[in-house]
Amino acid sequence: MPVYFNVKIYFITLINNTIQAMNNLNLKTKLFEACKSHQQKIIANLKAAMEDAQQSANEYGSPKDRYDSYRMQLLRKKDMFGQQLEKALGEFTILKKIDLTKTHTTAGFGAVVLTSGQNIFISIGIGKLIVEGKSYYVVSLQVPVCKTLVGKKKGDITELKGKEIKINDVF
């Protein structure tokens, strides 16, 4: 084989790998934006629920007697939404720590893992999202499937609850 033919194959392979990396980065960015949007909606809904509970308590007025628990119930509801809001804000902060420019070779925080059964984005626990017409499960590192995937790379095979999981790609 002539040398120029080998060089040509090298450059074609390099271009194909670059295009694939750009597609992977584009997909990861879309997943990240979908997660961010989802989390922002949750935060907005919780803030509105807190304000509504506070407004209802204010409109009700002061307790009618010492056994009047309705106002206290409304305030407890506001506190419950406040705790949920604090958790959602914490998860949003964790989500923002993902480095979209980093290309992962092993499964870990911020990686997209394509397996024989599922497409997984390891970040925070959101659940199923549809991006580009495909289902992706957005899960945290505490989920059992993530615990079995962490540190694995493309081509590895692992097992969870007796079911074999083949890792088709990690990025």
Structural write-up:
The chain has 171 residues and is an alpha+beta fold. Helices cover 53% and strands 18% of the residues. The chain contains three helices and six strands. It has helices at residues 3-60, 70-95, 144-149, and strands at 112-115, 119-122, 127-131, 134-139, 157-160, 163-170. Strands 3-4-2-1-6-5 form a six-stranded mixed sheet. A hairpin with a 2-residue loop joins strand 3 and strand 4. The longest helix is centred in the first third of the chain and has 58 residues, at 3-60. It is elongated, with a radius of gyration of 24 Å. The model has no long low-confidence stretch (mean pLDDT 90).
Provide key terms for this protein:
single chain; alpha+beta
Oligomer: single chain
Low-confidence residue ranges: none
Number of helices: 3
Shape: elongated
Task: Kindly state the number of beta strands.
Answer: 6
Radius of gyration over all CA atoms, rounded: 24 Å
In short:
The protein is an alpha+beta fold and 171 residues long.
Write the layout of secondary structure elements.
Layout: H1 3-60, H2 70-95, E1 112-115, E2 119-122, E3 127-131, E4 134-139, H3 144-149, E5 157-160, E6 163-170
